[in-house]
Specification:
The chain is an alpha+beta fold and 432 residues long. Helix content is 32%, strand content 33%. It folds into three domains: 242 residues, Elongation Factor Tu (Ef-tu), domain 3; 57 residues, Beta Barrel (OB fold (Dihydrolipoamide Acetyltransferase, E2P)), CATH 2.40.50.100; 76 residues, Helix Hairpins. The chain contains six helices and 25 strands. The longest helix has 36 residues.
Amino acid sequence: MRESRRRSSRLIGIAAVIAVLVGAVAAYAVSSPTTAKAQAQAQAATPPPAVTVAPVIVKSLHEWQEFTGRLQAVESVEVRARVNGYIDRVAFADGAIVHKGDLLFQIDPRPYQAEVDRLSAEKARAASSLALARADFQRGRALQRANAISTQAYDQFRASEAAAKGELGSVEAMLRAARLNLEFTEVRAPIDGRVSRANITAGNLVDGSAVLTTVVSQDPVYAYFDVDEQAFLRYEQLIQHGGDEDITGVFMGLVDETGYPHGGNLDFVDNQVNPDTGTIRARAAFANGDGQYTPGLFARMRLVGGAAVETVLIDDRAIGTDLDKRFVLRLTADNAVEYQRVEMGPSISGLRVVRSGLKPGDVIVVNGLQHVMPGQTVAPERVSMLEDGETLEQLAQVEAAAQPQPLAGADGLPALYIDNARGLVALADRAK
């Protein structure tokens, strides 16, 4: 029995030694130059992935700042009655365009016409009394010169003439007031603009406390928006030290529009920063001859943020995301790709501004970003960063728009007016 166990142990030991030797031989075979060469040949037989690459675009561009605001009429008037009375009729259609002087409401004029007639009669009576007193005074003066009457009698003639003259003046003043009240029974539009609805209809008694309707001007229109302290200080430095750089151009887009298709001029900045919000109120003026802007609309505002600088632009397709970071794959001289972190700026006409990470002349992967890894060799196909020339044309239009144009319909509005706590900073209207 013991002999059998010894033989089994020997057999197990021999088997273990053989297994170790076989494993060593296999490892040697795998690591041999012949095998490594075969693997390299197999990898070489696999073609590198094809990607499209494009050189970055470099343009001299202005940087822009974006804000939000609300449109507001230059003039807004609450129309009230200046005399009491019953409304005879409403003479306008709700929401209509009206001109200064157009009739809006007619208040019953009969009581005021009667007062005018009464005072007209009083004026005639007072004029007659004055004529009589003046004639008596002239006769008395002649008699006084002839010493035919006493001085006291002469003074009475003179006083009677003066009293009659004063009475006539008083009646004339009351008559003018009565005629004004009669005129005020016709409630007319105080400005050109668009009228609201009639708050009080015909048959109602009104007085000066009731707002009958409102009228808001149409052209031009203001856009008010709040600028943060950092942006305000930057603009102030540009104004004071920017030389010929003009930053008065403001561009606006409404909620249903893409981009900022409407141009106007910055014309006012408030005189102090709101300590609660850390912002300062600014205002831009926009021509509104066709009435497309309605007061109260939300508006997106864009202002030139500084002087024109050489700017690197790329297509959004070339940008990868690594958690909270942005990167691109840059092509090296040996057709490999390398990981490059980038700091992104705003979007301009469909292209993205690169603040840092790329320089002029760099070539990056545009399509196929997800199919390659950093360090991998690729088969690059060079294309343009742009699919067509429209984007470049849009960039040119944006830059041309950076120089503000004359604001039609807003004559007399200055291009920029800043009144701050440290003094007045005024910029001449360069748009003219």
